[in-house]
């Protein structure tokens, strides 16, 4: 590539990929059920742009293309996801197709960093800058400086949930920590150079650049540390602490200090080691006692997820289908198994995310999870192997370790913003690899980029045609929220052939039932039940059957909602009302007494009111 062409191409390419990463910051003040549509449509647009840029780089570059183990594994994951799309389809927004687009973005990032290696360092500071912006955004939310954009009073920055916000900051912390220490050490050395070297002007300009970058890193680090406690997410504190200690261990050369201490005094080292183990044991025990219910709930989800994995261990249930399979497995477990009282009390809504490794294992099967683990291992190995020649890999490796810990505790991949962050970290972690790669003809990357652009366009173009439908949904929701269900249902009706989002169908089905169109409501909500496991859906279907006089079917759906999350009071309340309407006195009393003994995960005014009604009902029937 000629120098003139390169001077023009670099700013264009850099801007395109910055815009892609800026998906993290995009927000729509009119969020619908926690879904920021603007973020997705921004991602679609910028991904197409970066695809065109990638094709241009592949076509005009004179460098020889190559392939390594990370790319090979990514191609394998790409193949698994495409096969999943051909086998399954669902109506979720963050489904297999979105997952496929995120994987494709890796190849675009990889091509860009292959041609512009210096950009890898720049993008680390871009992430720090984004983290600092999120911190400022968070403080504005805390102190209500942006009231128009803060309608739900949560600390979430530009991300849809507080948990995603806390995870983003925790994952970015090791990068900010590394560069704060590195630039501080470099500045100390720079001032000594300024006193000794003749070219003072060059050194002075370099020092000014380092000071600005140091201020950015230090402010980012201080901001993350200061706002993380306000998120109220202990797992994010744990992840930030572990990844920060990892960076400090290698950056401050603590392993050499520990090695020297061992050589000096074995007795002192033994005592220190035992003390450290005791401290870790006490901290672990204390943390378990403080978060006992939360930890046991996670263990319960793992237990039920293993049942899902046993059904299709090789191929999995399909990406995006895990929650439905998990909901069915949890229903069967509480209906036919032998759950303990603790498990009944801790059972959660299957619609809530569990950790990424479980979702990938059950979604893609053993093949998919082995590919994913192989990808993580290869990237971490690359980071450790190249740390001597490229010290900045320590920051990326620390961030990847933070992401892995987050994946074990929660599900960061479910967030589009965090998925893009993971792909960017993998691309940064595998750039500048020195060992020889397998050389391939130049025509292959050109054809590959065209193929990826074709896949991206095939997925993205229909989404743009749905934008008007989403706007109409937003318009209909105004009436839905005001409980003007007839008007809402009228607006929703023409959208059923276009939209595929489950929450749209939930709202439409509920609006139909509220206007007396129970048969149509049942048909719509049964479609949603095939995708989204939620006891609320079964409750609504049961109420429609009850209104139609189909008492046995109503009973089945109320019981299904009860068995799915047995600590919920409302399904049993509906059962008691149904039995009362059917004239079944004994069953009504049994159900009412069961409600009084139930211990919901969180007491609310609604549950207390229901229990008071049941006490009155028992007194009246006795």
Automatic annotation (TrEMBL):
Keywords (alphabetical) are: Membrane, TPR repeat, Transmembrane, Transmembrane helix
Mention any Pfam family matching this sequence: TPR_8
The membrane-spanning stretches of this chain are 7-27, 39-60, 72-88, 94-113, 125-145, 165-184, 211-230, 236-258, 270-290, 357-381, 393-409, 443-461
Kindly give the InterPro entries that the UniProt entry links to this protein. Answer: TPR-like_helical_dom_sf, TPR_rpt, WaaL-like
Give residue ranges of the TPR repeats: 535-568
Transport keyword on record: no
Where in the sequence is the signal peptide annotated?
none
Taxonomically, the superkingdom here is: Bacteria
Record's keyword annotation contains Membrane: yes
Q: What is this protein called?
A: Tetratricopeptide (TPR) repeat protein
């Amino acid at each position: 590539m000629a120098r003139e062409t390169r001077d023009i191409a670099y700013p264009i390419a850099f801007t395109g990929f910055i815009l892609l990463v800026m998906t993290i910051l995009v927000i729509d003040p009119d969020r619908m059920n926690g879904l920021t549509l603007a973020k997705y449509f921004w991602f679609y647009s910028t991904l197409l742009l970066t695809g065109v840029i990638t094709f241009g780089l592949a076509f005009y570059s004179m460098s020889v293309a190559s392939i390594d183990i990370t790319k090979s594994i990514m191609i394998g994951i790409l193949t698994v996801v495409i096969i999943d799309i051909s086998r399954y389809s669902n109506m979720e927004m963050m489904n297999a197709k979105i997952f496929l687009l995120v994987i494709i973005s890796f190849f675009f990032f990889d091509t860009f960093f292959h041609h512009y290696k210096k950009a890898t360092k720049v993008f680390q500071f871009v992430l720090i800058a984004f983290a600092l912006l999120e911190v400022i955004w968070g403080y504005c939310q805390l102190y209500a400086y942006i009231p128009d954009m803060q309608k739900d009073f949560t600390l979430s920055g530009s991300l849809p949930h507080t948990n995603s916000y806390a995870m983003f900051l925790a994952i970015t912390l090791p990068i900010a920590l590394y560069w704060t220490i590195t630039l501080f050490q470099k500045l100390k050395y720079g001032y000594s150079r300024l006193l000794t070297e003749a070219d003072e002007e060059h050194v002075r300009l370099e020092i000014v650049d380092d000071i600005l970058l140091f201020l950015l890193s230090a402010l980012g680090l201080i901001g993350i540390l200061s706002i993380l406690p306000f998120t109220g997410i202990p797992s994010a504190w744990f992840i930030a602490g572990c990844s920060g200690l990892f960076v400090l261990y290698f950056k401050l050369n603590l392993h050499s200090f520990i090695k020297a201490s061992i050589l000096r005094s074995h007795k002192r080292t033994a005592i220190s080691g035992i003390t450290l183990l005791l401290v870790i044991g006490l901290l672990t025990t204390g943390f378990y006692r403080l978060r006992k219910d939360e930890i046991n709930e996670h263990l319960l989800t793992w237990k039920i997820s293993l049942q899902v994995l046993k059904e299709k261990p090789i191929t999995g249930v399909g990406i995006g289908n895990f929650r439905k399979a998990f909901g069915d497995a949890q229903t069967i477990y509480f209906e036919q198994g032998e759950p303990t009282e603790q498990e009944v009390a801790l059972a959660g809504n299957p619609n809530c995310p569990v950790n990424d490794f479980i979702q990938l294992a059950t979604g893609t099967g053993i093949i998919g999870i082995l590919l994913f683990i192989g990808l993580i291992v290869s990237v971490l190995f690359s980071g450790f192997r190249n740390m001597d020649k490229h010290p900045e890999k320590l920051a990326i490796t620390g961030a990847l370790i933070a992401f892995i810990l987050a994946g074990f505790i929660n599900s960061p991949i479910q967030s589009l913003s965090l998925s893009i962050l993971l792909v960017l970290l993998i691309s940064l972690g595998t750039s500048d690899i020195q060992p020889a790669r397998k050389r391939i003809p130049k025509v292959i990357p050109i054809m590959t980029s065209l193929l990826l652009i074709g896949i991206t366009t095939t997925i993205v173009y229909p989404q743009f045609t749905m934008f008007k439908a989403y706007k109409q949904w937003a318009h209909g929701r105004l009436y839905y929220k005001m409980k003007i269900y007839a008007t809402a249902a009228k607006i929703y009706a023409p959208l059923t052939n276009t939209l595929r989002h489950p929450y749209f169908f939930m709202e439409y089905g509920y609006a139909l039932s509220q206007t007396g169109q129970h048969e149509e409501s049942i048909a719509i909500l049964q479609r949603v039940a095939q995708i989204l496991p939620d006891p609320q859906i079964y409750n609504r279907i049961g109420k429609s059957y009850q209104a139609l006089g189909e008492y046995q079917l109503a009973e089945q759906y109320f019981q299904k909602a009860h068995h799915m999350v047995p600590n919920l009071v409302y399904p049993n309340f509906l059962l008691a009302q149904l039995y009362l309407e059917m004239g079944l006195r004994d069953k009504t009393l049994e159900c009412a007494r069961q409600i009084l003994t139930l211990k919901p995960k969180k007491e609310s005014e609604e549950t207390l009111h229901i229990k008071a009604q049941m006490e009155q009902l028992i007194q009246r029937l006795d």
